[in-house]
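In response to reviewer comment 3 from the previous cycle, which asked for concrete evidence that the modeling workflow produces usable outputs, we include below a single protein chain processed end to end. The sequence was submitted unchanged, and the resulting structure tokens are shown without manual editing.
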Amino acid sequence: MPIPVVALLLAFGCSKDEPPIDTNPPSPPSGNSGNAGGPGGMSGEGGEGAVGGMETVPRPGSGGTVPAGAPPGGTQRVNEDPKGAPVLAEMNGVFHEVYEISKLPFTGKAVEYHATNVEKSEKVYKDGRLEQFTEWHDNGQKSREVIYAVDGKSTEKRWNKKGEEINANNAKARAMQWTFGVPGNKMAIEQYRGLAGNLVRRGFGPPDEENGDVWVYRNMKVRSGNQQMTTVRFTIGGDKVISVGVEP
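The workflow returned the following structure tokens.
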């Protein structure tokens, strides 16, 4: 009767040249190890780091949005229905899906920077409500500040690059509807051509921007044909307005 193969293996054992068989295979790595590596330098659960080496907070000057401070109350999972719209967060100009959100409304600041590391804008939130929005020119001068009341009303102040406040109450010409390219119209903004430059400042206040001899006024209302223009440029020469131009 032939001897079973299994019996032969048990009788003679394995060759001395063959490595011994490990009857106790290693356990799979724990998912809670803070040192476990991941794709692109991603740390394991409980570790530090981010996917692909991505910084969790963008550096100043990156132009991204930087949440300042962590919302209290822990987090909760976002609906992961594949058919549902994802919840997105912007960082460094790139949007990422968010898988956890704070249980409580956000209290803190969201700051954006110019490419020169100068602060560009700041939004202040309290209990999820926007309370204040501030903007700065690229030279560091404050350009706009809006305070939002609980009842929904807001107050706004504006400054030019020199730090001069643009007071709408003292610059009534800014709120008027002007025309351009309509000869004989009493609201033609070209009528400032040939007048003294101080009359422009008296009517429109300090310009939003000064490029040499060109004074730039934004957020204006000027009708040119079928278009509504919002930017007016006064070119000054010899303390007088030598030309007036408009742009959308």
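The two ends are 102 Å apart (CA to CA). We consider this sufficient to address the reviewer's concern, and the full set will be provided in the supplementary archive.
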